[in-house]
C-alpha cells in the first residue's frame, strides 16, 4: 500500500498541473464544470492523506463525495441543459439556505453522460456499485461501526486508492475537453501510461 500511496501522490501532482493548465472560465458551463473538477481533486487528495495518516473511516466517507463530484463535472460538461445552468447559477436570496437546483439523481446523470461518452458511463456505472456501500460511512451505518471496531484490510484500501485514481483519470479527460486547449490533447494517455502502476489491474 505504501507504494500505491507514493505513486498516487505523484499522480495527484500531475493532475493538479493539468487542472492549472486547462483552467477555462470563458463560459458559465466551463466555470461550473471546473469547479466540480477542483472539488473532486480535493476530495481525492484528502482520501490519500487520511489513509496515509491511518484515518481510514473518514477517508472512506470521502469516496462518495469524490465520485459524485466527478459525475457532476462530466454531466455539466456533456448533458446539463441551459435552463438547469440558469437555475443553478441564479443568485440565492438572503437567508435562503436551500440549494437552488441539484439536478437529476446520480444514476440519471450517468445515463445522460452515456449518450455522449459511452465508455466513461459504463465505467461510472461499475464504480457506482462499489460506492453504494460507502454511503454507510457517510450516514453512520453498520459498515462505519464495523470499521471502527475492526479496521479496514490493507488490500481493500489499496483497491480504494486504485479506484480513486481511475476516477481522477476520468476527470482528467473532462478537464482536457472543457479546457478547449488543443495543446492538452493526448494528456490523458500520457497520464495513464506514466501512472499505470497506481491504477486498477487491467480486466482480462
Describe it.
With 204 residues, this protein is mainly α. It is built from 10 helices and no strands. Helix 2 runs antiparallel to helix 9 (154-179) and helix 9 (154-179) packs antiparallel against helix 10. The chain is globular and about 50 Å long. The two termini are 23 Å apart.
Secondary structure layout:
Layout: H1 2-22, H2 28-52, H3 56-78, H4 82-88, H5 106-114, H6 118-131, H7 135-139, H8 142-150, H9 154-179, H10 187-194
Helix pairs in contact: 1-2, 1-9, 2-3, 2-9, 3-5, 3-6, 3-9, 5-6, 9-10
Pfam families: DUF6988
Contiguous runs where pLDDT drops below 50 for at least 5 residues: none
Total helical segments: 10
Radius of gyration: 17 Å
For the sheet with most strands, the description reads: none
The whole-number mean of residue pLDDT values reads 91
Terminal CA distance reads 23 Å
Query: Which secondary-structure class do the elements indicate?
Result: mainly alpha
The run of helices and strands is: HHHHHHHHHH
Overall shape: globular
Number of strands: 0
Helix content: over 70%
Q: Could you tell me the strand content as a percent range?
A: under 5%
Pfam families: DUF6988
InterPro entries: DUF6988
